[in-house]
């Protein structure tokens, strides 16, 4: 059985979806969730799902303490799901092609610093885009710039309500993120 670690800063609906997907599929297991946000919704989800969840701070992130923990656990894949911090080079180099992220738009458009969560959907709506989607990519030291693994598009109306866009994009995320992870694990 492959072992996964998830990093999430917020609500954690993708984290929950991935945990549940692999509970029925049994090819992998989410061993642990890590969050830098002591108020993150993902903490409550982990309690409910009985998955260990560790809250860490910036000092532990920067000093290499989290890297040590990751080396100890040696997961097959590290999954970012709504994780807001840049990943230090030492962590990226320790897990080459083993750290993935999902972005709620079609990169390279609507990516980069500040482009997260509802900001992304608002920008897509403001620009009158007629399509958006998801991008799953490897993580490097820059926001949203790692090699693209998978994209899926959906059509939207120009200036569609950002909440509606968010809802449609979330559905794509729930459908595709676990499946793409499963494929990567089999490679
Ligand atoms: C998702 O839209 C994901 O694409 C982005 O952050 C959001 C996290 O949502 N990176 P949740 O915490 O999984 O509900």
Topology summary:
Elements: E1 2-7, H1 13-25, E2 28-35, H2 41-49, E3 53-55, H3 58-63, H4 65-73, E4 77-80, H5 89-94, E5 99-103, H6 117-126, E6 131-138, E7 148-155, H7 162-186
Parallel strand pairs: 1-2, 1-4, 2-3, 4-5
Antiparallel strand pairs: 5-6, 6-7
5-O-phosphono-beta-D-ribofuranosylamine binds next to helix 1 and strand 5.
Structure description:
This protein is α/β, with parallel strands linked by helices and 187 residues long. It has a domain at 1-96: Formyl transferase, N-terminal domain (Rossmann fold, 3-Layer(aba) Sandwich), CATH 3.40.50.170. The chain is 42% helix and 22% strand. The chain contains 7 helices and 7 strands, in the order βαβαβααβαβαββα. The chain has helices at residues 13-25, 41-49, 58-63, 65-73, 89-94, 117-126, 162-186, and strands at residues 2-7, 28-35, 53-55, 77-80, 99-103, 131-138, 148-155. The chain has a 7-stranded mixed sheet with strand order 3-2-1-4-5-6-7, with helices on one face. Strand 4 (77-80), helix 5 (89-94) and strand 5 form a beta-alpha-beta unit.
Short structural description:
Helix content is 42%, strand content 22%. The protein is α/β, with parallel strands linked by helices and 187 residues long.
Provide the list of bound ligands, each named once: 5-O-phosphono-beta-D-ribofuranosylamine
The helix count comes to: 7
What is the CATH architecture annotation of the domain at 1-96? 3-Layer(aba) Sandwich
Main sheet strand line-up: 3-2-1-4-5-6-7
Might you state the CATH topology name of the domain at 1-96?
Answer: Rossmann fold
């Amino acid at each position: 059985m492959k072992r996964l670690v998830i990093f999430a800063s917020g609500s954690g609906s993708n984290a929950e979806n991935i945990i549940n997907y692999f509970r029925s599929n049994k090819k992998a297991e989410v061993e642990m969730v890590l969050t830098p946000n002591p108020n993150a919704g993902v903490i409550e989800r982990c309690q409910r799902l009985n998955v260990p969840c560790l809250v860490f701070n910036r000092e532990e992130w920067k000093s290499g303490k989290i890297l040590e923990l990751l080396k100890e656990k040696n997961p097959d894949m590290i999954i970012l799901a709504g994780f807001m911090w840049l990943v230090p080079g030492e962590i990226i180099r320790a897990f080459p092609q083993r750290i993935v992220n999902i972005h709620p738009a079609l990169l390279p458009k609507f990516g980069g610093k500040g482009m997260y969560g509802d900001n992304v959907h608002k920008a897509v709506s403001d620009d009158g885009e007629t399509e958006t989607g998801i991008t799953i990519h490897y993580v490097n030291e820059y926001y949203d710039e790692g090699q693209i693994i998978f994209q899926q598009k959906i059509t939207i109306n120009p200036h569609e309500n950002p909440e509606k866009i968010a809802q449609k994009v979330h559905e794509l995320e729930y459908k595709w993120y676990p499946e793409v992870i499963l494929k990567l694990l089999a490679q």
